[in-house]
Amino acid sequence: MGANLPDSSAIIFKVPVAEKKIYIREQQGYFQRLRRGLNIILVALFAGLPWISWQGEQAILFDVGAQTLRFFSWVLYPQDLMIFVLLFSLAAFALFYITKKYGRVWCGFTCPQTVWTLMFNWIERRVEGTNHQSRALDNQPWFIKKSAIKGLKHLVWIVTASLTAMVFMSYFYPAYQLYTEVMTLSAPALISGWVLFFAVCTYVNAGWIREKMCQHMCPYARFQSVMFDAGTKLVTYDKHRGESRGPRKRGSNKNELGDCVDCKLCVQVCPVGIDIRDGLQYECINCGLCVDACNQVMDTFQYARNLIHFKAMKPQKVWNGALVLYGLAILGMLIGIWVWAVTRVDFEVNVARDRQQLYREHYSGLVENTFRINVLNKSNHTATYYLSISGLPVATVTDLTIKHVKPGEKREAVVTVGSTPQLDEARQHFFFDIKSGESEQVLKREVIFIYPE
Ligand code: SF4
Ligand code: SF4
Asked: 240 C-alpha vs ligand 1 centroid, how far in Å?
């Protein structure tokens, strides 16, 4: 029955074959250069961003205790949830769009799991030698040389994992302070604990679990194949050209053979341990390493390149419904982010009626209502807020300013408002206008004034 399944079903249900350790052979070529270039930029950004300073503070910092995210001059609070929803939705739709067009290139070129796996493999190749030398070493009994080589590799892995954990934690704890405290062994136990936790996660993930994370744990790897269609560019082996495969000498006559010389280089370089010549498989992360390897072999035999290549079964339709929808969603998210950015107010205000007493009749003849006004300063500077009232006849207010509210501080002010009694109305809607003295932004809050019946 399995043999009759269409290709897309096979991608989803095929049982993984590579359960043994994979010795990834290093490969040079166009896609390897592309990935290395991308990875260097991404890792440099990851490590460097926490060191950028903005107005005397770390430019990007998630302060878990204060529940804020500082991003240059913005300080985001849980009340700014909308921007996170928009950003995550933008990232998700961008990923869907790219997957629909180019398959799992996110996995193959930019996913941290792949980046760190290949980084750890690079270290392994430097310390243990080629993939064949690595396998031979594993098959040897433990002796001094093997212990020294393995020990060195794990030591470099542990240092790399620890540095990764430090960089990651410096998004949550001021970078300079973190590095100083960890180096001088004076970091709080909680911070040291988290650094240790992330270091262990990185070491285990990139050193040991590797491709099994993608095959057995990552949910995205499982569902993204449903986004493929005939127009998606996937790494494909040209069966008609390659078969029947078989070894031969360089420059010899091919006779009945196809272009595949059965060198298995494409299998040796594959980080997930599959043979792309068996057809499309869900483990394939579209990394292009087998394309580089096979092109190198084709060059050696002076055959045409691209026996293995990125190919779509059919050209992608210009008006592909799903791509248009993803594109529109991306545009919608970008517009939403722009609107959020230009309309964002750098403080929050909540106005609540004092529940102790609905109203008071003052000896001056005015009716008084008391309100609790909570101001949260979401900017990164100390601010003073000015209150005014509109829509209430002859209104008086006990205090019109909330002074020197520090960044991130929430201040409550109790304000008593007086108004002339109304003969025909028991309630009157009116507005508190709260203006920031620094940014000059104004928030309006509608409330109800209660008169005696
Ligand atoms: S089959 Fe090729 S493209 Fe797919 S994961 Fe292996 S090396 Fe990468
Ligand atoms: S690298 Fe190319 S020639 Fe060698 S086995 Fe793979 S497909 Fe065949």
From this structure: 19
Distance in angstroms (rounded) separating the CA atoms of residues 171 and 157: 22
H or E stretch covering 7: helix 7-13
Q: Is the CB of residue 297 below 6 angstroms from any atom belonging to ligand 2?
A: yes
Hey, is 212 helix, strand or coil?
A: helix
* Cross-strand pairs, 370: 416
Round to whole Å and give the CA distance between 372 and 356: 11
Cα separation of 217 and 295, whole Å?
A: 32
Residues within 6 Å of ligand 1 by CB: 108, 235, 269-272, 274, 276, 284-290
| 255 Rama sector, left if φ>0, alpha if ψ -120 to 50, beta otherwise | left
Choose the residue to mutate in 34, 268, 274, 309 for probing ligand 1, maximizing ligand atoms within 8 Å of C-beta: 274
Say if residue 12's pLDDT is above 50.
Answer: no
Q: Provide the CA 49 distance to its chain's centre, in angstroms.
A: 14
- Name the pLDDT band for 8 (thresholds 50, 70, 90): very low
Choose which residue among 14, 278, 287 to substitute to test ligand 1 binding: the one with the highest number of ligand atoms within 8 A of its C-beta: 287
Residue 15's pLDDT is 45
Confidence of residue 404 (pLDDT cuts 50, 70, 90): very high
Dump pLDDT digits (tens) for 271-329.
999 999 998 888 899 999 999 999 999 999 999 999 999 998 887 777 788 899 999 99
**Ligand 2 mean position, distance from CA 347 (Å):** 62
pTM for the full predicted model: 0.81
Cα 441 from Cα 345, distance rounded (Å): 7
User: Domains in the chain and their CATH numbers?
Assistant: 347-450 (2.60.40.10)
